[in-house]
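Chapter review. Work through the record for Mitochondrial import inner membrane translocase subunit TIM44 before attempting the end-of-chapter questions.
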Amino acid sequence: MIRASRLLTDKFSDVMGGLFSKTELSETLTELCKIDPNFDQKQFLRDCETDIIPNILEAMVRGNLEILKDWCFESTYNIIATPINQAIKSGMYLDSKILDIENIDLAMGKVMEHGPVLIVTFQAQQIMCVRDKNHEVVEGDPDKVMRVNYVWVLCRDPNELNPKSAWRLMEISANSQEQFV
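Structure tokens for Mitochondrial import inner membrane translocase subunit TIM44:
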């Protein structure tokens, strides 16, 4: 799973890295200000830190599909929901935790057909664990803290007036490694 995440991150960087530049970020921020004249980049990053990222990550580690459906584009939701649904069908459940979120950064931006898109990078410290119906660990380790590097593509819904609920997760990439203290 870690190797696949790393491959996805590398591929994402190769593809997306050539598509974005500082001028595209400026154009994206200008477009965002047309949609929301009060848009502020620093406030957006604070909203990511206190609202957007925690809501989505908590829903992911708890397997809360209803919340994920609200925050994600359909294709992204399907990617995230598939292993959760498979675990549930197999009688397993997620016993993971988010311990910390840090180093949130706005990496890139682009105006796309769905609306303005911002690429946000951050790190999370997580415990990742899946248990069976007898509460036995079948995947992960409840005592091992993992550092997960995330790259999220967030798209602003131009039709949503409330800026706090207007962002949707369009793409996700993650790679993890054990956190050594």
